[in-house]
């Protein structure tokens, strides 16, 4: 049974869990608030690298017995299995909490329903489903990795008002302003990985690193190139940021290129061919198998189109500038060739706001 302040405290737990987005994979980013007599005793969230878990982080701030009779608000069902650390459900039981409020269940077979059952068997009152929709939105990547074996995919598009990403001569820096570019860094910060296609890697020589965001964990840098035609100079090959480099390539990629990147510590992932390039459904499955929960695709147009065609795009974040480049400009998407409007992917607007001189808009997969 819910109580009047349950949503208030769960909203706080969700905001704490959000601090871990992009930092905790393959574990979920969970938040926890421990409350007693209307006062917050402790706050916790899953720490960088996935441990300690949110409940353990919060409980570690309290003296023995301090949580006795308290209520714990947790954004995901507490784990019930022993991994590198003891189960969080056991930790809550040992702490003597009287009630646990959970936003949403954990579909992991090792946990699903068992965490709640452990708490109830210990005489703890359990209330589930408080702010569940909000929690499932935040946990979308983790939930998809468990149920569909793939991460959530966000496609970022920064373009002119008429959907172009460069002039006819290839000039693209900068269509959007500095405030929009800073928001892109914030997007990178809450994703596990940043992904681009081989053509973008060759033409832009991007670093794909996180800048201006403090000491947050660097995202994995992913390049998709069937022939492994990735520049062997520039930031991806030469920088010392410590950000991992993963290369998705075809099964027939040249051995010489494989040897070069292996020698530089890159992780190579072979993916079956599909259509004109790689099978992007298989590619996302491989990334999920490797533990990623949230991937941000930053281009180019061919990769974006192939992800849309494979129905792998869950969110689209657009940055639109008030500039027109015309039909000769480079389009933000490659060819999709849908025969009718009903065949095209459709997204629904989640939010929009002005960012500097540009507009940032977030669209979510449309569910009829």
CATH architecture assignment name of the largest domain:
3-Layer(aba) Sandwich
Structural class: alpha/beta
- The N- to C-terminal Cα distance equals 31 Å
Classified in CATH, the superfamily of the largest domain is Dihydrofolate Reductase, subunit A
- CATH topology grouping of the largest domain: Dihydrofolate Reductase, subunit A
Task: Please identify the top-level CATH class of the largest domain.
Answer: Alpha Beta
Unreliable stretches covering 5 or more consecutive residues:
none
Order of helices and strands: HEEHEHEHEHHEEHEHEHEHEEEHEHEEEE
Strand content: 15-25%
Rg over C-alpha atoms, rounded to the nearest angstrom: 22 Å
Q: Find the count of extended strands (DSSP E, 2+ residues).
A: 18
- In spatial order, strands of the major sheet run 11-10-9-8-14-6-15-18-17
Average pLDDT reading: 93
| Alpha plus pi helix count | 12
Count of the separate structural domains: 2
Overall geometric form: globular
What percentage of residues falls in helices of 4 or more residues? 25-40%
List keywords for this structure.
nine-stranded mixed beta sheet; Cytidine Deaminase, domain 2; five-stranded mixed beta sheet; alpha/beta; 368 residues; Dihydrofolate Reductase, subunit A; globular; 2 domains
């Amino acid at each position: 049974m819910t109580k009047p302040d349950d949503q208030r405290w769960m909203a706080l737990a969700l905001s704490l869990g959000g601090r871990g987005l992009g930092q905790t994979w393959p574990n979920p980013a969970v938040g926890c608030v421990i409350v007693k007599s209307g006062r917050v005793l402790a706050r916790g969230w899953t720490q960088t690298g996935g441990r300690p878990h949110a409940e353990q982080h919060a409980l570690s701030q309290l003296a023995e017995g301090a949580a006795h009779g308290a209520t714990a608000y947790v954004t995901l069902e507490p784990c019930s299995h022993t991994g590198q650390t003891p189960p969080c459900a056991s930790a809550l039981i040992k702490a003597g909490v009287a009630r646990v409020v959970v936003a949403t269940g954990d579909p992991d077979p090792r946990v699903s329903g068992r965490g709640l059952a452990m708490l109830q068997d210990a005489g703890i009152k359990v209330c589930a489903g408080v702010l569940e929709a909000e929690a499932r939105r935040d946990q979308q990547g983790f939930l998809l990795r468990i149920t569909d074996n793939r991460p959530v995919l966000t496609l970022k598009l920064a373009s002119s008002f008429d959907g172009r990403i460069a002039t006819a001569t290839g000039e693209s820096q900068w269509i959007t302003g500095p405030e929009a570019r800073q928001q892109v860094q914030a997007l990178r910060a809450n994703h596990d990985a940043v992904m681009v296609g081989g053509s973008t890697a060759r033409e832009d020589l991007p670093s794909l690193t996180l800048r201006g965001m403090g000491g947050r964990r660097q995202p994995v840098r992913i390049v998709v190139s069937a022939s492994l035609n990735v520049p062997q100079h520039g930031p991806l090959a030469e920088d010392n940021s410590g950000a991992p480099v993963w290369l998705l390539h075809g099964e027939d990629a040249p051995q010489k290129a494989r040897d070069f990147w292996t020698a530089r510590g890159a992780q190579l992932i072979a993916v079956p061919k599909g259509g004109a390039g790689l099978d992007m459904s298989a590619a996302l499955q491989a990334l999920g198998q490797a533990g990623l929960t949230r991937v941000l695709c930053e281009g180019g147009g061919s990769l974006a189109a192939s992800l849309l065609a494979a129905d792998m795009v869950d969110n689209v974040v657009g940055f639109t500038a008030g500039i027109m480049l015309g039909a000769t400009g480079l389009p933000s998407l490659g060819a999709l060739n849908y025969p009718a409007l009903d065949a095209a992917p459709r997204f629904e607007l989640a939010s929009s706001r002005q960012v500097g001189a540009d507009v940032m808009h977030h669209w979510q997969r449309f569910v009829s």
